[in-house]
Amino acid sequence: MPEQWKFEARGPIRVTGGIKARSKRGTIAQTWWSQRFIEVLESFGMGGRLQRGKNYARSGQVLNMTLSTSVVVGLVQGSRQEPYRARIGIKAFSSQQWAHIERELAGQALYAAKLLAGEMPTDLEEVFAELGLELFPSTMRELTMDCTCPDWEIPCKHLAATCYLLAESFDEDPFQILAWRGRRREELLDRLRALRGTQQVTPEETSEEAPLSDHLHDFWTSPSPAGTPESATSGTPVLDELEPLPLKVNGTAVTDLLRPAYRAFTG
């Protein structure tokens, strides 16, 4: 029997202070976005290794896990004294691709509002799909995995344990998914705020007044807004805006003759 197999047959060295999965039984992943990631992992069809990896995650065998652009690294304690290093890589979106993504998100008020509130829109994947991008990996080819353990199968239980804990980190902070793809939380939110601030706001978004059709019963009697000049409430603002009419009746200007009638309508 090869020497490395003897090490693995002894079982992992138990550790204290490791990262333990919150889920103690059943499915690991509570939100739709972390479930999407686990679906990809479990689609590889390696049930035994994945189950052992899930046990590793629940027993705290992962000592440390870090996420940066494109790469997640987990330090996993196995049967050897030196922990194994498990790496999971994904291709980050380019700066140009992120610029398209941010413009699309900023242009849709619902997406921008949810993200700025720290929420993950349920159909966020569709925004990426419309741009020809995939937020989550859909095949093994989109992920790069390696581990310093002697197991040649991918994913090994150390990689699986790291993946399960990664999914739980997505539950806690969905922005980790976007950071993995190359855009940190604050950077994305700053970009969305800037883009939203430069967009023209339509009257429908800013007007708090009801449409004219709702005021037909009191159109002529509604009080004028505070600060409106007296000339605007005199009942004759339209006459005042007109150029002086040259016509006169018995020496009196036509506009002056019309004023009593206008006042009667508004009084």
UniProtKB/TrEMBL annotation:
Every SWIM-type domain range: 136-167
The keyword Lipid biosynthesis belongs to this UniProt entry's keyword annotation: no
Domain of life: Bacteria
Sequence ranges of Polar residues compositional bias: 221-236
Pfam families assigned: SWIM
Alphabetized UniProt keyword annotations: Metal-binding, Zinc, Zinc-finger
InterPro entries: Znf_SWIM (IPR007527)
Stretch list, region Disordered: 199-238
Protein name, entry field: SWIM zinc finger family protein
Organism field: Saccharopolyspora endophytica
